[in-house]
Amino acid sequence: MKYQNKPYTFVELVELKVSDLEKSLVYYQEIIGFKVLEKQENKVLLTADGKTALLSLEQRANSLPKTQKTTGLYHFALLLPSRADLGAVLKHFIEINERVGAGDHLVSEALYLTDPDGNGIEIYHDRPDTEWTWNGEFVAMDTLQIDAQGILASGASTKWVGLPEGTVMGHIHLHVRELAETEKFYNLLGFEVVTPNYPGALFMSTGKYHHHIGLNTWAGVGAPPAGENVVGLEAFTLVYPSDEELKAAVENLKTNDMNVVEENGSFVTKDPSQNKIKLIVK
Fold this sequence. Notes:
CATH architecture: Roll
Structural class: alpha+beta
CATH class: Alpha Beta
Organism: Psychrobacillus mangrovi
CATH topology: 2,3-Dihydroxybiphenyl 1,2-Dioxygenase, domain 1
InterPro entries: Glyas_Bleomycin-R_OHBP_Dase, Glyas_Fos-R_dOase_dom, VOC_core
Protein name: VOC family protein
Mean pLDDT: 96
Number of helices: 5
Pfam families: Glyoxalase (PF00903)
Helix content: 10-25%
Domain VOC: 10-126
């Protein structure tokens, strides 16, 4: 999990608006395997290790169903420590008859699910970065059929007891209205394109990870943001390795006339598609 630690900038907490908190909580505990870190009347923080919040669920009054053809969350992605862990969770999904999608992305093997409100979830493990194929500055990625039997065999002796403690938020993938302007925005935050030629999408990272942030226009070029009360993404947090690098990102935003404000110990901004981002140092 080196790319989700210093000296890299990475995604940590993803905040979701949900229509029914108790229904979502059952799903994320029993199906996905999260533990409750903190619970309030209308909000829950979920964790894998009992210390770090990876997902926030909040029920808003008068919430509206998820809308299509808008910007926002495509999926958030939980990175497991090993292929054996992926095998254990795949076996769990089979045993409970949970419908999943899957893809071999060359750099990783992934499973895909959708929560009760239609929010996308990826659960994956990375192949060793020494096995990734680079063409200059760009890493090779694809979507191929997974070796499900091989994954299950890897996890044959690993019992599923929920998300393993080493699970982290590996990346986030967003619907955006346009790629070029969005790329420039995330450049200001310190991210570089590592996969530029995926149809309708860009993948960006720090430190040559295969991606911390995915961006796509699959909801349509020019797609509008969802309304404030619509379920889905509320915000996500980027963790910077130092005060100096956070300050540089904030100054980049201000110099380029991007709105950024300080709230409750973090800086808050929005990308050109109105996806809300919190910038912090831990």
